């Protein structure tokens, strides 16, 4: 009988070589954010409906994998947001793999933890949970030995992040947003004691001018000992959002005309990371990231007036150094991190962009008790600008397809603060959510 065992094993593998392991997952949820009278009624932040659909598959013995991850959100302002986070097909060989489609690049930890959106794009449904969107292109990985491997990414097609979007009314010359995270420019400005009505004329580039932009990068990783990795990477790609060139002229005693030309600029990224896994449940990392804008839009206003329309024009080099420790065991996960912007920043104009974080701490906890009760907590605190983001969520799952969440998302920042988050102070929420998961 023993001599027939190899024959039956070979027969089994042959019969199942075309078998496909599929996994479909996601959820449909309704969330209400105004459980307290202390929360402001902001259009788009009162309630929303979320739909997430994920799909992945593997073909055993064929060395092929696929992944698809799509999300939608519809809010009370009638605005639909959508995000294709991943959509890729991967071919695996002995020492290499090839992925193409919408691909996430896991090259530097701080880009994900802090929502910087420099390497990958951001989902940006809301800024408490910015999420990541992959880049459209081809990724090739090759392992030279147990100690040395590399990633190469390239593309001639670029899809910038889409959220939060602004609505442009060419007829009335207005720019509005139906998302509380989309900062529309001002409709009026004051200068010399005079209030002016602002009319916007926006020139948007064609789809081909945006889409056919090259991206390419490489990452090298060296593993001197088991579970200790030293990486270095460099990349040139379009920025994750359109930039603007602004020209303003005074038409009359009460009107200002603003011409806004939008275009997509490139930037150069490089940096490195030291990471390691320790004692089975622990992981630590030290990351460095530099982003250098290759082109800078001009800030042009008539008579040198700085009206402060709320449109970002100037761009700066940004250098970040971050470190963190992660712990994960069974149903409990925690993260303690720190991020420092080591590049200088001086805001010379109201039109200049502001970095999200300067010198910030992060504490994150996720606890899943018996697949029935959930606790999520996240705190980010900038010690330089005193901006704070609190997130607390409690979940109860009485049935494997049904879940109820309650919690709060709070932005705490000085009213007279000059940091990034001061413009979003009204986007707090005390929420309850009912979700069907599959």
Overview in brief:
The chain has 438 residues and is mainly beta. 5% of the residues lie in helices and 54% in strands. It is globular.
Any descriptors?
five-stranded mixed β-sheet; 54% strand; 18-stranded antiparallel barrel; Porin; 3 helices; 438 residues; mainly beta; globular; disordered N terminus
What is the overall number of helices? 3
Indicate the CATH architecture.
Answer: Beta Barrel
User: Helicity range of the residues?
Assistant: under 10%
CATH class: Mainly Beta
The separation of the N and C termini measures 45 Å
Class by SSE composition: mainly beta
Quantity of strands, as a count: 27
Proportion of β residues? over 45%
Domain count, please report it: 1
CATH topology: Porin
| Global morphology | globular
How confident overall, as mean pLDDT? 85
From the alpha carbons, calculate the radius of gyration and give it in angstroms: 24 Å
Instruction: Give helix and strand order, one letter per element, not per position.
Output: HEEEEEHEEEEEEEEHEEEEEEEEEEEEEE
**Residue runs with pLDDT of under 50 for 5 or more positions:** 1-17, 299-310
Sheet with the most strands? 18 strands, antiparallel, barrel
